[in-house]
Specification:
The protein has two helices and 18 strands. The two termini are about 30 Å apart. About 5% of the residues lie in helices and about 55% in strands. A hairpin with a 7-residue loop joins strand 11 and strand 12. The protein is mostly beta strands.
Length: about 375
């Protein structure tokens, strides 16, 4: 594959969008908009895994390039659109122009509705509670059972931290600090071996007031493991400011239906950030309990039985060089119990069962 092709596509799309905006400028209302935005995020990592030794590597932390805009249609109604794709800052390979949050929709006093590829409410409800999201050290290693940066109903059947294709979403307007988000991923895929037609539903309710954030989220996966099964994720979270300090906490339960029985696992996550001048000290800790239930299967990193849990500890520091450019450093370590094999959800390290893996990173992030 010619790795230049995605970038040529992006350049062509930018030229077309810019040309369209210039061509229609005389006819469009003054409130129409077109915004170019992005994030370039990378780190030089020293990674160690007991099973694979050590390696020094340059890792990409989900760098993105996007375009978004809106058009006011009158009577409080407006059209929304967004095109967002990934950039492989480390290798340049595998980049795509619309494989991230991409949508078209309408917004009014009643809320926002759109169709496309988008992060699910279950994921977005708490991703901001993790100061290392979305890097190698992200909490998705344990929370949510991995990360699916883009998936349909059959490609990834275990992760509850996901961006989903072929979906509809509704966002409510804010009412007394409360907002709700709901999503449905239509059952247009079919599992060839069983004839199952899986689908997904996701929702969250969030309360925000003076920096305090409280949230609850639920997501259901129908027929992901087999016909007649349903997997469920549920979590609650809170983030509290206290001067320059912010503390966040999440508790989560995942339940899977498998052909050999049920599989349930509880997990929790704590994080803190402390702002000091142009710098921020960050820390996070997550703990996955043993899996429980009759299931003999392994779903993602989850399995039933004793010594199937793990923990992850991360510390880091960000130093702002400007409003948009930040130096970053972190150290993250995952300790697996004797029958567990949890792995970094982004930029895996080759974790073996019962082993410890770690990553030390020094990087740079720029947002525009």
């Amino acid at each position: 594959m010619n790795i230049r092709t995605p970038f040529r596509q992006a350049a062509l799309a930018l030229a077309l969008i810019t040309g369209f905006a210039m061509h229609t400028g005389a006819h469009a209302q003054s409130s129409d908009s077109l915004t170019l935005y992005g994030r370039l995020n990378t780190g030089l990592e020293y990674v160690h895994a007991q099973s694979g030794g050590s390696v020094t590597r340059l890792s990409n932390y989900r760098s993105v390039l996007g375009f978004r805009g809106e058009e006011r249609l009158g009577d409080g109604l407006k059209a929304l659109w967004q095109l967002e794709g990934s950039l492989a800052l480390d290798t340049g390979a595998g980049s795509s122009f619309t494989n991230r949050d991409t949508r078209i929709g309408l917004a009014g006093t009643w809320g926002t509705v759109f169709a496309g590829v988008w992060t699910l409410p279950y994921t977005s409800a708490t991703s901001g509670f993790d100061p290392f999201y979305p890097t190698t050290a992200g909490y998705m290693a344990l929370m949510g059972n991995g990360s699916a940066s883009i998936s349909d109903n059959v490609q990834d059947t275990h992760s509850f931290d996901r961006r989903q294709v072929n979906q509809l979403q509704y966002w409510s307007p804010a009412w007394a600090g409360l907002t709700a988000r709901m999503a449905y991923a239509v059952n247009e895929e079919t599992v060839a071996s069983t004839g199952a037609k899986p689908s997904l539903a996701s929702g969250s309710i969030t309360y925000e007031l003076d920096g305090l954030v409280l949230t609850i989220a639920i997501e259901r996966h129908d027929q992901y493991q087999a016909k007649g099964t349903a997997d469920l994720g549920a979590k609650i979270g809170a983030s509290v400011p206290w001067g320059a300090l912010r503390l966040s906490a999440i508790a989560e339960r995942l339940r899977y239906d498998t052909s050999s029985g049920g599989l349930t696992r509880d997990a929790w996550y704590l994080s803190s950030t402390y702002r000091a001048g142009p710098g921020t000290v960050k820390a996070g800790y997550s703990r996955a309990a043993d899996g429980k239930g009759a299931s003999a299967e392994r779903i993602g990193a989850l399995r039933s039985g004793a010594d199937t849990g793990a923990s992850q500890f991360t510390v880091g520091y960000d130093h702002e060089l400007s409003r948009r450019t930040t130096l970053q450093a972190f150290y993250s370590q995952i300790d697996n119990q004797s029958r567990a094999a949890y792995e970094f959800a982004i930029n895996g390290a080759g974790a073996g069962t019962g082993q410890r893996i770690s990553a030390l990173s020094f990087g740079l992030r720029h947002q525009f």
